[in-house]
Structures are given as C-alpha cells and as structure tokens.
Amino acid sequence: MPTRTWVPPGPYDLHRTLGVLGRGPGDPAFAVRGGEIWRASRTPPGPGTLRLAARPADGAVAAEAWGPGADWLLERLPALLGADDAPEAFTPRHRLVHAAHRRHRGVRLARTGLVLESLIPSVLEQKVTSDEAYRAWRLLLRRHGEPAPGPWDRLRVMPDPRGWALIPSWEWHRAGIDAKRSDTIVRAARAARRLEEAAAMDLADATRRLCALPGIGPWTAAETLQRVLGAPDALTLGDLHLPKIIGYALTGRRGTTDAEMLDLLAPYEGQRHRAARLILLSGTVPPRRAPRFPVGDIARL
C-alpha cells in the first residue's frame, strides 16, 4: 500500500477543496468517513482508491492508495489537492467576495486530470435536477461499476469506456436517463482517448475538444474542466441558477441573465470561476418564491 504526504504552502481546507468532486449524497465513488476523504477512480493504469486525511499537527495531507492506479493517483496527489492552483492571483473586487475570500483562504481548485470521470456525471446533470442526476450516477455505478480496490467495499469504480458503451438501453431508462444523455455518454466513451487528451490542454483548447462531441456544450465543458484542469476561469454558462445567485449576491436584484453575470464578473477576468465559487460559498442566495422543481422519473414511463 503506497503512501504520500503533501504540505500546503498556506492555509488549507481539504474538504472544501475536494468536496466538489463528489456527486451528491451516497456517491459510490466519493465519500467522507470519520473526517477522511475516500475517492475511487479509473486511472490510465486501472482502478485506484485514494484515502486522504488532514494532519492538523503539521498541516500536511496524508494519502494512502490501493489498486493498479495507486501509483498514478499518488504521483498526481499535489495537483489533485491544488498545488498547481494560484489563489494568490485573485483580487476581490466586491465586499461580499472579499469577505468570502478571507473566510475561505484554504480553498484551492483541485485538478483531477481525468476527463470521463467528470464528464459523464456532468452529462447526467444536463437539464434535470441535481437529485435526479445523483440518483442516476448512484444506480449506474452500483450496477455497472466494479468494487474499488482497498479495504472499504462500499466504494465503486465507474465502468471503463467499453463498459459505458455496452450498457443496454433499458438500463439507462431504469436509471431515469433519456436517450439524448445516454447517447452522449456512449459517444464520449467511444471517443475516450481523444477526450482524455484534454487534460493536458489549456482551457480554450480543452473546451473546443469537448464541445466538438455532439451533446456537449459550454455548460457541460465548463462543469467538467473546472474539475479536470482546476481552471480558475471556467465559468459555467447556461445554468438555471448560477446567474441568479451571483446577480442577487452582488446587486440584490433578481433575474440576472448570463450576459449580466458576465458583466458583473468582468473585473475577475481569468478568475471568474473562482469568484463564482466564493460567491456560492458565501451562502447568499435569493429567497425562494416557488416550490422546488419536482423530481421526474422517466423510469416509470
């Protein structure tokens, strides 16, 4: 069982840094257990499990890994934990952002280096509620994934590209996934090698590579590359809620559009995703005026 430690250069928040990699409660590939973070991934050498724990005594993060992908995961541990990120390049321009930046100095942008791992759940989240997408991810991994290496049998590793491509149509339907999203995932699985190359590209080239695949647009590309590259400017456009939250937090007004959000975040050019994330961490959201959107279930049709 190989191990590695990484010592952050300053304040560090392990759980908020890596929390964005989890896909809702009960994610079979990501879990928090006793203050430790467990993550199961399909790496180029094969499945791997990573256990991470913060060590308050010396400020380090300690990691253990299992499986064929263990060495790959540990080699890239600093990047995963945000060593390539440069939060010092960020300058707050609004009072709320300044307060959130001061309160969350330990949050860095993680870089996984694995495209399909973030792309597929992002496709599942297209045009549906988060609860629907999380349920679909859980069902697919439990039924078509494989047990993750290591001591915790609760974790699952997602299918390999061939495994995704071979999931039958009725299994997608059973998980509540329409044909448009399942077709996109199958196309992505068949183009896995080309898509994974985006992990070594800059944000603009990686976005073009992902968006060249039918069914993947700017929203899905941004949600994917925020995690794959740790890209500070990968702002999500086309989201139902994000512009409204940012508009309300920065101006107190409701109904902000994407175009207006871009104007508000223009002072953060190059760091717009980081600014948006800090605004979300502030917890300032417009009061709800209508009931929560009902969760659909096409598996019952």
From TrEMBL:
Keywords per UniProt: DNA damage, DNA repair
InterPro entries per UniProt: Alkylbase_DNA_Glycosylase/TA (IPR051912), DNA_glycosylase (IPR011257)
Keyword Iron annotated: no
Gene3D superfamilies attached to this UniProt entry: Hypothetical protein, domain 2
Protein name: DNA-3-methyladenine glycosylase family protein
Source lineage: Bacteria, Bacillati, Actinomycetota, Actinomycetes, Kitasatosporales
